[in-house]
Hints:
CATH topology: Serine Threonine Protein Phosphatase 5, Tetratricopeptide repeat
Radius of gyration: 16 Å
Low-confidence stretches: none
Number of domains: 1
Strand content: under 5%
Number of strands: 0
Amino acid sequence: xxxxxxxxxxxxxxxxxxxxxxxxxxxxxxxxxxxxxxxxxxxxxxxxxxxxxxxxxxxxxxxxxxxxxxxxxxxxxxxxxxxxxxxxxxxxxxxxxxxxxxxxxxxxxxxxxxxxxxxxxxxxxxxxxxxxxxxxxxxxxxxxxxxxxxx
Length: 151
């Protein structure tokens, strides 16, 4: 990757069938050192894949707390909304029961009460409760999250 960056390859060009950027692929595989290398090379931390996911969505769903932290530090939008599911990184972390990721997102001021762009549907707290993720639910309640089950 360093050779490609040195050769001024476009670090934001999607090269997979799913339209994932090199950054999203590095995030998906949990390669923190490669994620940092791409961020340093000005990779777009908000670039959407074809399915509407940002690199932060991918990291939050995949329980990559160290990578989530790198993306937040690089100013990834913690309240970004997927174009396919209208989910947020916090709803993805709540769905997976990833307490450490939830804590990072809350600390970065993620909106604990938004799940969909239309304001309907389950909140991250509702998702955590429905899936039995008690630790995540506790963290969300401490951040003043509300439960909403229906739209």
